[in-house]
Design a protein that fits this description.
The complex is a heterodimer of chains A (291) and B (1057).
Chain A: E1 3-12, E2 18-28, E3 30-35, H1 42-49, E4 57-62, E5 65-66, H2 72-75, E6 78-81, H3 93-103, H4 109-122, H5 138-149, E7 156-160, H6 168-181, E8 186-191, H7 194-200, E9 203-208, E10 211-216, H8 218-223, E11 229-234, H9 239-245, E12 247-254, E13 257-263, E14 272-273, H10 278-290
Parallel strand pairs in A: 3-8, 3-9, 6-7, 7-8
Antiparallel strand pairs in A: 1-2, 1-4, 4-5, 9-10, 11-13, 11-14, 12-13
Helix pairs in contact in A: 3-4
Chain B: H1 2-14, H2 16-35, H3 49-59, H4 62-74, H5 77-80, H6 84-87, H7 94-125, H8 138-167, H9 170-190, H10 204-213, H11 218-224, H12 230-235, H13 242-265, H14 268-278, H15 303-323, H16 326-347, H17 359-391, H18 395-398, H19 407-436, H20 444-471, H21 475-489, H22 494-497, H23 522-549, H24 554-557, H25 561-574, H26 583-597, E1 607-618, E2 623-633, E3 640-646, E4 652-660, E5 663-666, E6 671-680, E7 685-695, E8 706-707, E9 713-715, E10 723-724, H27 735-740, E11 762-772, E12 776-778, E13 782-789, E14 792-798, E15 803-804, E16 809-812, E17 815-821, E18 824-830, H28 838-855, E19 863-869, E20 878-881, E21 884-888, H29 889-893, H30 905-915, H31 932-952, H32 954-972, H33 988-1006, H34 1008-1022, H35 1031-1040, H36 1047-1056
Helix pairs in contact in B: 1-7, 2-7, 3-8, 4-7, 4-8, 4-9, 7-8, 8-9, 8-13, 9-16, 10-11, 10-13, 11-13, 15-19, 16-17, 16-19, 17-19, 17-20, 17-21, 19-20, 20-21, 20-23, 23-25, 28-30, 30-31, 31-32, 31-33, 32-33, 33-34, 34-35
Classes of the chains: A alpha/beta (291), B alpha+beta (1057).
């Protein structure tokens, strides 16, 4: 069983931005979802865990080895797919994968060939293995990113916004791979797509402004909203009125009608009760923070 | 358009780095103005309008550097930041965009150069000294700024701008910037620039062409001012007319044309379409992921993994470099530039004969030219590959892997491979040159020197550059610092920072190659220094690594001991025998010498009349010992009460004893005044016995005139024997230093009208030389005897008649050839590799002997010996001593005369040097005064021309005269003009070129027979032991043999022009 323990982790950038504020987490094998809006600090947290930047305070231990003292303790067992990564121009997929495999300690060519070809097949890039990666479409590049993250024998895989740029079918398949892998390793899935967390993750946390503002199992956190979510279609002009009187947690334009969802302990006149979703919980948590 | 310009300008205004850079340029310009002493001729002020213009043109070279750095950032901004997709889809038109961008670019580069130039102006104008003219004239500075600063900025910017917007390739833009620099250096060579010490005289057509083609205007500037006198250079600006006007106009128009090309070729849409076209088209149809477990492999973290990682990083770098167009472009630049140099070294222009395309010649050409260019390429490549991961945003993935820290080692490996590749292509080019010129003797040692002197230090340079990039966290600052670092450490500028050659381990090697001696001891010494440097670089890498990893364990820090120990061992081995140079101490010594001992200039001193000496050479050790005995005689008309003895510097005196009147005085200082208990009467004799040793070490370099080396030694050994009396050669010549020590002017050259001593200082010489068993020693005089003893060879030389105190020796593994010509032995000692021209040398010697004996008088010795010496001796092509001529291997013995009969250097040298046996050496031996060189060198030139006429006919001789005329004209503006009869030995263009022209004119005027008659009479009247002649004596002979009607013309030729 692999464990990742983060205690009181904080990071402030030179420009004064508090990217991470006193975050504590304890993760075991399985998929952990990290939700949050843009600028919440998810990527900063990911980069700190993988050793790309140093925090100002706190600790990170992976399988009881201090990661901050020696990032190699986690890098030995790490697969990392960052958000919006680049690649070397003029290098083919297979060349880059071989290079990364060597960096991850797979020094037998036979082993590398076997694993790389298997991964390329798995992510359906076999036909493009000899093409230069910088010419790939967004989806293909993301699949390449998945393949490289799975090189070696990772015990922790961190994926930051992995399904950005993927079409629904690709997203589905990517999620399938991650699901299969999560039995034997820790997978941290950082995303702002609530549905992915709902479908894949056994544990989750919501981040905002560098802090963890909510943590728990998706099903359990959703249940806390049972009986408290109300919905109704209203006029656009009425939205501000409802915002003054109630806690509006989201509003969506559906077929030219504004559907408002609000949180209230009691029945709201004119509103119909709605089954809470993880998305509702997410918006509720953020709005709670704002209030 | 304004928005495009101002947006970026504002960014630069707001950045503190911009101000730092401008301040740096200002400071650097100030330093250059205050310290640089690029003299362009004797008597020409540093702040004369001519010199300012020349400086401004040279300084404008820096524009390439500035424009490339700024351009690599500014011109690629949209593409680097992927903003092009947005910007190009706004309603801005192409001309607006391009013009706006160009204006910003031009403005920024010009401002930078302006700051540098202003700093230079200020720095120069706060100087004082005899080289600075008082008064400040703004126009003298503004005019060259407009002429060179603005026009050159326009050209460089438009050139790089058009390359950028046509190719959209940053590396290519940088390469083309470098190409401009390379082209410029080549053009300087062909323009007869005084800045280029290796400049060869070129034909008038070549000079005109280079004047037109020089993008920086320097060549046309030189051409326009070619005939300026010293006064004109000091007072007048070089006017904007003729070739200069044409050149400036041409490049202004070209600049505008280049901008039009950029506008024509560039397109907003093509840059976007290109990206789309490159996209890989995926197969249509369902994407089918397989189910099942993902295959995993167990990683291993050990030394093998680490090494493979380093190799993988290097492989990735090399794949990138090899696929880029930059590699072929940079290779072509190297091949072209060095190929041109090789060609120039072989062909040698219109004045010199073609050389054999030997491995040594070509290897030294590579050594002299590859290093700096290679270092500049390396600077850019190492910056590019180091930052590639970061800029391509692949670093997030790469840096999260276990072995990411091995990246820098991988970069070092890839740079090593790159340097090796460049070295290899240059060596292959050299081999091809050899084959194409038909010289099929390949010397592997010569080419291995290319690796030792270039590849190895460049590998170190790569290590340091990568370190700089690792420490500096900004790509372009790192690039700027790296370029500065390279310029300082890879050029002679490093010598301004440290004299200690051990710390110059990032420099190349500019030394000689000899077919006798290879690279000599320098090869081993260089390798020792390289190992020291390697240890230093490893030490720095380890420190950086440990700091990054925050290593606390003591045992890991102890690893640092290993490079320290290695550095210590090899450093001390290299520095063995190091003699620290201390300019101030040398000045103080010279001041003290002059102040205390100058009175001896007026005091009578004894003359050396006899020298009996033994010289034991140890070529393998680069050392020798001298044992000598002088007989000293009072040949003055006064008694002598004290004698000033001068022993040479850098010699160890084992013992020295001055004996007079049965009293001995031990000498243990190099400069000693011996006070005699009893004055030495007129005609009385004393003796001096001495023993001293000399040895040189590679760390100090060798004295080219005292080159005791493993094979091919030559020493003008008389220079290193003790001398008597005050020596003017020790006086400080710099007027400012003299002034600061309240000293008057240097001892002037004797005037023509000053009286003679009344006697000639001559000696009889008895010299025994010993050398190693495989070598032959050549001395001065006649070989009386030779023998072997205890594994060494001995040679005993004696002079039959007295000679001036001037003798030399050589020692080498010689082959020899001897012939008898009318009772005179002609013997040639040469390198076994250089037999090609021996016969021709002997034939020309016969010709010269016959001509000279017929026209001037009998040859005074029973034999003539020619001895080839190695190119470790520099400063002359050939030199004559009584009965012996030493010839440098570089000039005569390895000239390819068959390729170009017009440049028959054997004919020239043989005639010239053999002629010295009449004019100079023993028969005519004028003392050091005005016009003395006219009686030796000019007369030797005349004899040379007459022999040439005999061999090749009058027409070819007149072509040669015209060439000498051109060479004289090109140099006369750089020093004060004097007529031949008063020339001093430093004015070589007058002595040799003007002298040859004037003497041929004389022979055309009065006839060769009459000239020879005059010379014959002159010789009979003044040859030893008669009193030493003056130049006016010879002119009187010319007048004596001619009709009075021609006298005004003769006087004009020698006394007026």
């Amino acid at each position: 069983m692999n464990t990742l323990t983060i205690k009181d982790l904080s990071l402030t950038y030179k420009n004064g931005v508090h990217a991470i504020q006193n975050i504590s987490l304890e993760l075991k094998n399985g998929m952990f979802g990290l939700l949050g809006p843009n600028g919440a600090g998810k990527s900063s947290l990911m980069k700190t865990i993988v050793g790309l930047q140093k925090p100002n305070s706190g600790s990170i231990e992976f399988n009881e080895s201090d990661v901050l003292l020696n990032p190699l303790n986690i890098q030995k067992h790490l697969g990392f797919l960052p958000q919006d990564f680049g690649v070397y121009p003029k290098s083919t997929a297979i060349q880059l994968l071989h290079h990364l495999a060597i960096l991850k300690g797979i020094n037998s060519k036979k082993d590398r060939d076997e694993q790389i070809l298997s991964l390329l097949d798995r992510v359906n890039l076999m036909a493009q293995k000899d093409k230069e990666v910088h010419t790939f479409s967004g989806g293909m590049k993301q699949r390449f990113g998945v393949a490289q993250a799975l090189l070696g024998q990772p015990k922790i895989v961190i994926v930051d916004e992995p399904t950005a740029g993927l079409d629904p079918e690709e997203r589905n398949r990517f999620n399938t791979i991650l699901n299969e892998l999560s039995e034997d390793m820790i997978i941290i899935l950082s995303t702002h797509l609530v549905e992915d967390v709902k479908n894949l993750c056994s544990e989750m946390a919501i981040m905002s402004n560098g802090k963890i503002i909510s943590q728990g199992k998706p099903k359990e956190v959703v249940e806390t909203l049972t009986g408290k979510i109300w919905q109704r279609s209203i006029d656009k002009n009425e939205l501000s009125i409802y915002k003054k009187s109630y806690r509006v947690i989201s509003s969506q334009l559906i077929e030219k009608k504004l559907v408002v969802t609000l949180y209230n302990d009691e029945n709201v006149k004119g509103f119909a009760p709605a089954s809470p979703s993880l998305e509702d919980y997410y918006f509720y948590t953020l709005s709670h923070l704002q209030n | 358009m304004k928005a495009i310009s101002f947006f970026h300008l504002n960014q630069y205004y707001r950045s503190y780095i911009s101000y730092l850079v401008l301040a740096f340029l200002l400071g650097f310009g100030f330093y250059a103005g205050n310290n640089f002493n690029l003299t362009v001729g004797e008597g020409v002020y540093l702040n004369s309008p001519y010199t300012i213009g020349y400086f401004a043109a040279m300084l404008s070279l820096i524009i390439i550097f500035i424009a490339t750095i700024i351009g690599s950032q500014l011109l690629f901004k949209e593409w680097d930041n992927r903003f092009d997709l947005i910007l190009y889809t706004t309603p801005i038109s192409k001309p607006q965009f391009l013009f706006g961008r160009f204006c910003t670019y031009f403005y920024l580069v010009l401002v930078c150069f302006f700051c540098f130039y202003v700093g230079f102006v200020v720095g120069q104008n706060i100087r004082s000294g005899s080289e600075i003219h008082s008064g400040f004239h703004l126009w003298h500075y503004l005019y060259p700024f407009f002429l060179f600063g603005i026009v050159n900025t326009l050209f460089v910017c438009s050139f790089l701008f058009s390359v950028t917007f046509v190719t959209r390739n940053k590396m290519l833009m940088v390469m083309f910037g470098l190409l401009l620099y390379v082209m410029y250096i080549l053009l300087l060579m062909f323009s007869n620039s005084p800045f280029m010490t290796g400049t060869l005289p070129q034909s008038a057509m070549a000079e005109t062409l280079s004047a037109l083609m020089d993008p920086f205007g320097v060549s046309s500037y030189f051409q326009n001012s070619k005939n300026f006198t010293v006064y004109e250079r000091n007072e007048q600006i070089v006017p904007l007319n003729g070739l200069l006007l044409l050149n400036r106009t041409l490049f202004t128009v070209l600049s505008i044309a280049l901008l039009f090309v950029a506008q024509n070729k560039f397109s907003f849409s093509s840059s976007i379409i290109k990206k789309k076209e490159l996209k890989v088209v995926e197969q249509s149809g369902r994407v089918n992921f397989l189910t099942g477990k993902v295959v995993t492999k167990i990683p291993h973290f050990n030394l093998i993994s680490q090494l493979k990682t380093i190799a993988s990083f290097a492989n990735i770098d090399l794949m990138y470099i090899s696929k880029s167009i930059v590699l072929p472009v940079s290779s072509l630049i190297l091949l072209f530039f060095i190929g041109m140099e090789m060609n120039a070294e072989i062909e040698k222009g219109i004045r010199m004969p073609q050389k054999f395309a030997s491995s040594g010649l070509l290897a030294t050409t590579i050594n002299r030219n590859f290093f700096l260019l290679g270092a500049l390429f390396l600077t850019y490549f190492s910056n590019d590959i180091f930052w590639r991961s970061h800029l391509s945003r692949f670093s997030q993935i790469e840096n999260s892997t276990y072995y990411h820290s091995q990246k820098i080692k991988g970069h070092w490996l890839s740079m090593t491979v790159l340097i090796t590749f460049f070295t290899l292509i240059l060596v292959v080019e050299a081999l091809l040159f050899q084959v194409s010129y038909g010289y099929l003797q390949f010397d592997i040692v010569a080419y291995s020197g290319v690796v030792v002197f270039n590849t190895l230090p460049l590998v170190l340079m790569a290590g340091v550059l990568l370190l700089l990039n690792a420490i500096i966290k900004h790509k372009y600052i790192a690039l700027g610092v790296s370029v500065l670092f390279t310029i300082i450490f890879a050029t002679p500028i490093i010598k301004m920072i440290t004299d200690i050659t051990l710390f110059q381990f990032l420099s190349g090697f500019n030394g000689a190659w000899s077919d006798f001696n290879g690279y000599g001891s320098y090869l081993t010494a260089f390798i020792e220094r390289w190992v020291f440097g390697f240890a230093v670089v490893i030490f720095l890498w380890l420190i950086l690594d440990m700091i990054k990893q925050k290593t606390k364990h003591i045992y890991k820090w102890s690893y640092l001991l290993i490079p320290v120990l290695i550095a210590g061992f090899y450093g001390s081995s290299f520095m063995k025998g190091y003699v620290e140079s201390n300019e101030q101490a040398d000045i103080n010594w010279a001041v003290t010498y002059e102040q205390q001992l100058k009175p001896f200039q007026q005091l009578p001193q004894p003359s050396i009349t006899d020298v009996i000496t033994t010289i034991d050479l140890f070529p393998e050790d680069r050392s020798y010992t001298i044992e000598g005995a002088y007989i000293l005689k009072n040949e003055t008309e006064e008694s002598i009460s004290s004698v000033l003895l001068n022993f040479p510097e850098n010699y160890t005196i084992s013992n020295a004893v001055f004996s007079y009147n049965k009293k001995e005085q031990i000498i243990d200082n190099s400069i000693t005044v011996v006070h005699l208990n009893q004055p030495m009467s007129v005609g009385d004799s004393a003796s001096l016995n001495f023993k001293m040793q000399y040895r040189w070490h590679s760390v100090n370099g060798h004295d080219p005139m005292n080159a005791i080396i493993e094979n091919g030694s030559f020493m003008r050994i008389s220079r290193y024997y003790p001398t008597l009396g005050y020596q003017t050669k020790y006086e400080i010549s710099d007027a400012d230093i003299r002034k600061s020590h309240n000293m008057g002017p240097v001892s002037p050259l004797k005037k023509l009208e000053d009286p003679n001593n009344g006697f000639q200082e001559v000696i009889t010489l008895d010299m025994t030389i010993s050398t190693s068993a495989t070598q032959t020693a050549i001395g001065t005089g006649i070989l009386v005897e030779s023998w072997k003893k205890e594994g060494r060879n001995y040679f005993h030389y004696k002079t039959l008649d007295p000679i001036p105190f001037r003798f030399a020796i050589s020692s080498a593994e010689y082959a020899s050839k001897k012939v008898d010509h009318n009772g005179t032995d002609i013997q040639v000692f040469y390198s076994p590799k250089h037999s090609e021209n021996v016969e021709h040398l002997i034939e020309n010697t016969k010709l010269t002997l016959d001509y000279s004996e017929k026209n001037f008088g009998k040859y005074p010795f029973p034999s003539i010996t020619f001895a080839e010496i190695s190119s470790f001796t520099r400063g002359f092509n050939a030199t004559a001593y009584p009965a012996t001529i030493f010839m440098n291997e570089d000039m005569a013995f390895h000239a390819n005369l068959k390729a170009d009969r017009q440049q028959d250097v054997i004919n020239e040298l043989a005639a010239h040097e053999v002629a010295h046996f009449w004019w100079g050496t023993t028969q005519i031996n004028p003392d050091q005064r005005e016009g003395a060189a006219f009686l030796t060198e000019t007369l030797a030139m005349y004899t040379e021309m007459m022999i040439f006429k005999k061999m090749y006919g009058k027409d070819m001789m007149m072509e040669k005269v015209q060439m000498y005329q051109d060479m004289y004209e090109s140099q006369k503006g750089f020093s004060k003009e004097v007529p031949l009869y008063k020339v001093d030995s430093s004015q070589s263009h007058i002595i040799y070129y003007k002298g040859a022209v004037v003497m041929v004119k004389l022979s055309e005027l009065i006839g060769e027979e009459k000239v020879n008659e005059a010379l014959r009479n002159f010789l009979n009247q003044h040859k030893f032991p008669k009193s030493q002649p003056k130049s006016i004596d010879l002119i009187e002979e010319f007048l004596r043999v001619t009709d009075t009607m021609i006298h005004p013309e003769i006087e004009r030729l020698f006394l007026e022009i």
